[in-house]
Amino acid sequence: MNLGMILNAPYPPDMRVKKETDALIKAGFRIHLLCLRRKHDAYEEEINGLKISRIDAGRNNYQLAFWDSVIALTFKHPRFMKAMPDWIKKNNISVLHVHDLPLAGTALALRKKIPLQIVVDLHENYPEALRTWFEWKKGLIVKWKNKLFMNPDRWTKHERTAVLESDYVIAVVEEMKKRLIQTHHAAPDKIVIVSNTEDKSFLHQPIDPSVYENFENKFRIVYSGGIGPHRGVDTAIEAMHYLKAYPDIELIIIGSGSRDVIRHLQNVTKAAEVEDHVHFLGYQPFDKFYSFMHLADVNIIPHKSNEHTDNTIPHKLFQSMMSGRPLLVSSSHPLKRVVNATSSGLVFNANNPQDFAAKILLLYQDKDLCNTLGNNGKRATANGTLNWDAEQIILVDFYKRIFNAVKHAV
Question: For the whole model, what pTM was predicted?
Answer without folding.
Answer: 0.93
